[in-house]
C-alpha cells in the first residue's frame, strides 16, 4: 500500500498532535500529584530551627542474652536464647544431639538413622519426640516467667 505525500503529512500531524496532547495531560497529572503530596507531607526543616537534633538509638543488641556454647562432634554450637538453652539442657543427651544434627547441621532423617544405627523412621520418630519435649519445656518456661 502506497501513501501519498498528503496522507503521510496528515499522519505525521495527527501523531504530533496526539503526542503533544498526551504530554500536556501527563504534565497536568504530575502537577496534581505534587499538589496532593504538598498538602499531606510536612517538611522537617523546622526541627533545625528548634535546635532539635533528630536521631534514634537501637537497643536490640544491648538486650541480647550471652550465647551458650554446646560442644558437639568437634563443632561448637552457639545459642543465645536463654529459654532455649534451659529447655535443651533438660533433654537427654541423645535427643539434644538429634536436634543439633537436624537443625544446626542440616542432616536428614536417613543420615541421623545411619549415625545412630537405626532406620530412618526411628530417627524421624526420635526427632519428633525430642521436638515435642522441647516444646513442652519451652511452654513451661514461658508460663513460669
For the secondary structure, the number of strands is 2
What is the rounded distance between the termini?
Answer: 86 Å
Return the CATH architecture of the largest domain.
Orthogonal Bundle
Give me the Rg, rounded: 34 Å
Along the chain, the helix and strand elements come as HHEEHHHH
Please provide a written account of the structure.
The chain folds into two domains: 5-40; 68-144, Orthogonal Bundle (Arc Repressor Mutant, subunit A). Helices cover 63% and strands 7% of the residues. It is built from six helices and two strands, in the order ααββαααα. The chain has 145 residues and is mainly alpha-helical. It has a two-stranded antiparallel ribbon.
List the keywords:
single chain, 145 residues, mainly alpha, Arc Repressor Mutant, subunit A, two-stranded antiparallel sheet, 2 strands, elongated
The gist of it:
The chain has 145 residues and is mostly helical. It has helices at 5-40, 46-49, 82-90, 93-103, 109-115, 120-144; strands spanning 68-72, 75-79.
Task: Please write out the topology.
Blueprint: H1 5-40, H2 46-49, E1 68-72, E2 75-79, H3 82-90, H4 93-103, H5 109-115, H6 120-144
Antiparallel strand pairs: 1-2
Helix pairs in contact: 3-6, 4-6, 5-6
